[in-house]
Amino acid sequence: MKKLCALFLLFTGGMLSAQDRPNKLPNEQWVSLFNGKDLTGWVKVGQEKWEVEDGAIHGQGITEEYGYLRTEKKYRDFELYLRFKADADGNSGVFFHADFKPGTATVTQGLQFEIDRRLGGHTGGIYGDGRDWVVWPAPELEGLIRQTDWNEFLLIVQGNRYICYLNGVKMVDFTDPKPKSFDGYIALQLHSGGEGNMWFKDIRIRDLTVR
Is 14 left (phi over 0), alpha (psi -120 to 50) or beta? Predict the structure, then answer.
């Protein structure tokens, strides 16, 4: 945790108290994507349950289908910091460059940084865009996820290069030789099967997109 906090502070240049600057970090480039009170700035995709409890986003699988909570805005290049906790074995992930078939939870494009609290679940690996697994973390890193406690993600997407830090450790640093998606929503996922029970908080982004 100390390693990832140090990395985050290096990116942000330090943090102000929430009372002083509730929505921004000091360098004016990092902004909060979640206000800790409601789902302003987010859009539910599918029928799963998303609500705010105790200052965190709580996602629960209540059907057998996939469910997502996506940003209102699309992002191309960015650095994203968040904390997550899994209260069940149903896996999850953080999608990027994502989009959906209108009116459904069908993903039409996008990759995800995997979250799966089970050992060997490849948390931090990259999956999607019709290609299944794109890259896994090294086997010796599989046990870094805290199965019953809060974890920290630092996710960096720049062009076709994707980097993931989990709890201060670099899990993957992958340059995609055949990228399929280049722009889209960021989305939190609940996997199909109705077992998802995920928490997310402290979600902050540095948007590097040039349009």
Answer: left
Longest CA–CA span in the chain (Å) reads: 44
Q: How many CB atoms lie within 10 A of CB 63?
A: 15
Q: What are the residue ranges spanned by the domains of the chain? A: 2-207
Per-residue pLDDT tens over the stretch 182-204: 999 999 999 887 788 999 999 99
* CATH number for domain 2-207, candidates 3.90.226.10, 2.60.120.560, 3.40.1190.10, 3.20.20.220: 2.60.120.560
72 near 197, Cβ under 8 Å? no
Nearest to 115 by CA among 153, 78, 79: 153
Could you tell me the pTM of the whole model? Answer: 0.87
